[in-house]
Every structure is written in C-alpha cells, then in structure tokens.
Amino acid sequence: MAATNTPLVASIRFNQTGKLYHFDVSAYPHLKTGDYVIVETSRGRQIGQIAEIVSPDKRGPSRPKPIKAPATARDLLMKKWWASKETKALIDCREAAAEIGNLEGVKFIQASYNYDGSMLTLTFTSEEERVNTNRLRKRLEQNLHTRIEMRRVGSRDTAKILGEYGACSGPRCCAVHLSEFSPVSIKMAKAQGISMNPSEITGMCGRLRCCLGYEYEQYVEARKGLPKINRRIGTPFGEGKVIEVNALTDSVTVIVNDTRYQVMREDLIPLEEMRAIAEKAAQTRSRECRASPSKPEKTSAAPTQESGREEPSQKKSSRHRKRRPRRRRRKSGDTKSS
User: Fold this and answer.
1) Are 160 and 17 in contact (CB under 8 A)?
2) Where do the CATH 2.30.30.140 domains begin and end in the chain?
3) What is the CATH number assigned to the segment(s) 226-296?
4) Span 27-50, pLDDT tens digits
C-alpha cells in the first residue's frame, strides 16, 4: 500500500537552461528522461521536457500537480510552427510600442508563444519599476488574435535570454548551463584575490559575474590556516609581514628586511611561537654567560684548596726534617757520653 501511495515525481524544464519544476507523472509510469509532456502552468498549457525522475528523498512535503498528458508528435509540430512566428510578433510589438509612445525606456527582448498559440508572452526590461503597457497589450491582442502577457525581467535574465558572449570571450554561463542565479558578493572576489576593478568583476549584464561563485568555496578551504595580509609571521628568514596570500600554491609572500620571499605553509612559524623560541634562546645564552665566569673561579679555588691541603703535608715534612737532625744530635751526644 505504501508503494502505491508514493507518487512518481519528475523534474520538468520548459527551455534549455530553464528552472526545474516538479510534476506528478504517476498516471504515466512508462515516461522516462527526455520525454515531452503537457502541463498546466500559470501561463497556460506548456510543453516541457523531463530532466530526471526525482528520488523520494529529494521530494518536497507537498504533492506536486499532475501532468496533463504526454506530448504527441502533433503537439511538438505545433510548438515548432508557433515558435517560427515569435520573431514577427516581437517586431510587431516594437513597432506598436513606437507608435503609442511613452515607452522610450522599455526594451522588448523576447516573444514566446505557447505550444498551441493560445498565449503570447512578451518579455521586456525597463529601468522604471512600474510601466503602463495596457494600451500596447490591447492593440496587440486585436492584431495578433491571442492572449497577451507582459513580463518584466531584470538585467541578469535579459543577458540569459539574449545569450551572446561574455567577458571571457566564451558563451555566457547563464545562457548555456545556469538554470538558477546564485547570490554573488564582493566578498567572493576578495577571497580569490581578484582586482576590485569593475571591468574585472562585472559581467555583461552590469552585475557581478556569476563565475565568481564557482571556485569560492575551494579558495575559502585553501586559505584556512594561512595568515592574512599585513599580518606579522615568522619564517625561516626571520620575522616578516605578509603582503600576498597564494591560496592555489598553499603559500604566502612575505617581506623580510625589504626582501620578498615565498614561504610554504609548512615553513610558517606563528609569531608567538617564534618569539617564545627567541626568548628561550636568549635565556639560555644569558645562563651560559653567567656560568662562564664562575668556572675559572672554581678552577682557581681548587688549587687553593689543594695548596691548603698540601700545606699541612709540607709542614709535616718540614717538622720531620727538623726532628731528624735533633734525633741525630741526641744520638751523637749519647755516643760522646759513652
């Protein structure tokens, strides 16, 4: 029973780099990745392509909407036929906007039909937040005989729709593989040591480049344990100041006595530890200096003690020398008396 109640959910996208949406495909268990289906959206019925079958652990708490039906060959041909009319619809929109006027700051960038032509979505960009397009919409509905929806997008979505090439001379990432825009900040550029020159960090959309976030986590991980710029650090060449952090080579550039050195992570010595080692070495030298003059005194004292010890023996020997003659004299006296 649990297996039958578990819905079969698929991720569906409506264009090559579009956002993924979840839909219930339990009614059609034979569907697989790459198949086209018809779903009901806020913009009417759309044809989408199944990107993947979602595993149960990745599903949200709410049950997704079911799909209408698998797309047939006729549905796909209708989609191509209406797509061929989108360029002309965009031109008609721009011409009508120029005739009506009061839309000088509005730039229409895309026209998109539903697969059956029941709705036409006109995408535009504008510096003003509120733009009155009611007159234009009514005129286009009369001329094109379909429902018109006006959609305003930002600078990033505009660059994604227009495509073309980025500052790196390659196709724009947003138009090739980015399905969603991740937040990008100046902090990411600073962590990677990129120049703060606007031309170096700004994309064609006028916003911070999306690619700044690609390697940010790797740089953050690589910089862990490395000292920051302007910090004093100990090195095999002496105490110096960090002037550059080289995260990719796992080293820092240090200036010691007006000389630059590139020091690897394993050769860095914390300043506190280096000072402690220097203090310990100084204390050891001071002890040796104090101990060095005392050694001669001990050596000089030894002979004095020895001399002091030798003096009694010398006295004894002198006494013995004095006594011997006396005994000899006594013996001589005895001989005389005899």
Assistant:
1) yes
2) 226-296
3) 2.30.30.140
4) 998 999 999 999 998 888 999 999
